[in-house]
């Protein structure tokens, strides 16, 4: 999901990225937002894997449950980056843009 709350469109991936997958070695999803919130993340990763590309993404780890981890293993995801912006409410403001909430 992007900064403005919109997902990277699947149609954009199919039209402008998928045709060129063979020209790159790695497709890596990161940036503004949490890749695991995208409803088609695994479809994009699978499309790249089917072209023999390496795939990965950076996540804050909150959504890394058993089902997600098993799917990553099954598709042979190559890289899983964990973003740790602060270890507690004292260090978080120094390293991350958002305030820490006790609701997590």
Automatic annotation (TrEMBL):
Single Gene Ontology MF annotation: iron-sulfur cluster binding
Signal sequence extent: none
UniProt keywords, alphabetically: Iron, Iron-sulfur, Metal-binding, S-adenosyl-L-methionine
Domain (Radical SAM core): residue spans on this chain: 28-90
InterPro entries: Aldolase_TIM, rSAM, rSAM_sf
Lineage top rank: taxon: Bacteria
Xref: Gene3D superfamilies: Aldolase class I
Name of the protein described by the UniProt record: Radical SAM core domain-containing protein
Biological classification of the source: Bacteria, Bacillati, Bacillota, Clostridia, Neomoorellales
């Amino acid at each position: 999901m992007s900064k403005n709350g919109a997902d990277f469109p699947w149609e954009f991936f199919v039209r402008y990225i998928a045709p060129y997958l063979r020209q790159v070695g790695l497709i890596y999803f990161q940036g503004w937002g949490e890749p695991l919130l995208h409803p088609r993340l695994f479809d994009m990763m699978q499309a790249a894997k089917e072209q023999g590309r390496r795939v990965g993404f950076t996540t804050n780890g909150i959504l890394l449950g058993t089902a997600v981890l098993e799917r990553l293993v099954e598709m042979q995801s190559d890289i899983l980056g964990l973003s740790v912006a602060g270890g507690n409410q004292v260090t978080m403001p120094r390293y991350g843009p958002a305030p820490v909430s006790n609701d997590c």
